[in-house]
Amino acid sequence: MTSKKIFILLPDGIGLRNFAFTNFHKIGLEKGFDITFWNNTPFDISELGYKEVKINNPKNHPLTEIYKNARKQIELNLFIKRFNDTTYNSYRFPFSTKTVKQKIKTFLTKRIISKYNSETRLKILLKKISELEKKTNYFDDCINTLQKEKPNFVFCTNQRPMSAIAPIEAAKQLGIPTATFIFSWDNLPKATLVIDTDYYFVWSEFMKKEILKYYPNIYENQIVIVGTPQFENHFDLSLKVEKEVFFKKNNLDLDKKYICFSGDDVTTSPNDPQYLKDTADAIRNLNKKGFNLGIVFRRCPVDFSNRFDIVLNDYKDVIVPINPVWRKIGEGWNTILPTYEDMILQTNTIAHTEFVINLGSSMVFDYVCYQKPCVYINYDVLKLESSNWNVEKIYKYIHFRSMPTSNSVIWFNNVDEIEQKIQSILERKVTTLKEATTWFEIINQKPANQASERIWEFINTLTEK
To answer: Organism's domain of life (predicted)?
Structure first.
């Protein structure tokens, strides 16, 4: 019997970690699929021994970006009106007017918003985006590729990139079934669904309800609950290294217990350097009391700034930076790509630290896979606070409403309680593991280590029809 040919579309580097560096490919091969990565990233998939078809010169229609940006604004407008909730305004980015080109784009975007700002008119706009992309050489190239390769199914690893529109529209025109993966737990309220596919793979029942809520044009039978491969590495024992090996490689002291401070990008948490300093001060005080503690600082993978340099230099006795191993292939932010090595590094950083401190990230779920707690930072730094940023704004984001109880994490509500709360965590006087586990099971289908298996099971069922 001829094996079914599956195209895994990588419109950008986001999908590499979930679908190239996990066992996703291996599981698909074991099920008898012929797998080809349709690759729009600078990363050479063939380095992994995988089959790939490169996407060359993927130029969108000049107006598509303007229409796509207008679509996002209109969808947020409709969410506000539909749910009587202005929180959705926080997902907007300010219009740029620094250059003549930006001023023209902003002018056109606002004109399109005013013209299509209704449920009915939005449908016309979506059709317009599809029509624009079908006029491009990129679309024609996608048609030619699909006609030559003849895949039975096209699976897009990320629903957000504009570069995914033409390949998906080409597959639909040729009658090839399509699906996309909603790649992050906070994406749907942000109006980031850019492509229109036959099926949508989501993390959980919770996310299924979200997609039905935000996109009433999508039907229930199009939504497939699979979980996410994002957490599968935590259950892969082959990725673990012994504590002694990890500590030696990363210049850690075997006599110390380490806490992970996981940094955010500068937009999400501009005050991160001060938060790191506050934590380091608390650790110094605890060490004076007889504790023997240190901090592993893992910065945000796309943060190459020098904003932490002063703190790292002043607290060398406490903080050990272990930088993510991402690869910067080009100049744009979207050419900073995850690596297999970093997946191993993150896995072992979690395995060999006591708990994690951060501002509102999904690391809470990574740590709960190891039954370890997470601390969320929850106070402002007035002398550093930017005019349009505060910590309250972060925790008002829609995706935090999935938290079953505030006890799902430990909160640093002010700088003065950091020391006492760290001591309480280490002495097991406070725990959030039960509530955090419940939260994880709301967000992600369990068992968490079988997402890849579930995706392939669905693809198998679909392609057998």
So the answer is: Bacteria
Claim to verify: residue 161 and residue 280 sit in the same structural domain: no
Q: 165-173 and 119-133 are packed helices; what angle lies between their axes, rounded to 10 degrees?
A: 90
Rounded Cα distance, 11 and 39, in Å: 7
pLDDT digits (tens, 9 = 90+) for 158-170: 999 999 999 999 9
Same domain for 423 and 316?
yes
CB 262 within 8 A of CB 308: no
| Alpha-carbon torsion (99, 105, 107, 109), positive or negative | negative
Regarding whether 223 and 89 lie in a shared domain, the answer is: no
Orientation of helix 119-133 relative to helix 64-83, angle to 10°? 160
User: Per-residue pLDDT tens for 324-373?
Assistant: 998 877 655 556 789 999 999 999 999 999 999 999 999 999 999 999 99
For residues 308 and 411, membership in a common domain is answered with yes
Q: CB of 38 within 8 A of CB of 9?
A: yes
Structural domains counted in the chain? 3
HEC-encoded secondary structure of 217-282: CCCHHHEEECCCHHHHHHHCHHHCCCHHHHHHHCCCCCCCEEEEEECCCCCCCCCHHHHHHHHHHH
CB atoms within 10 A of CB 56: 9
CATH number, residue 328: 3.40.50.2000
Does 246 share its domain with 278? yes
> Strand 34-39 vs strand 51-54: parallel, antiparallel, or unpaired?
parallel
Domain identity same for 177 and 147: yes
Asked if pLDDT for residue 320 goes beyond 70, the answer is yes
Same domain, 48 and 80: no
Q: What is the pTM of this model?
A: 0.95
User: Residue 332: its pLDDT value, please?
Assistant: 59
Residue 1's pLDDT is 44
- CB-neighbour burial class of residue 319 (10 A; exposed 0-12, middle 13-18, buried 19+): buried
Q: Tens of pLDDT along 373-424? A: 999 999 998 765 556 788 999 999 999 999 999 999 999 999 999 999 999 9
Residues of the domain holding 247: 234-443
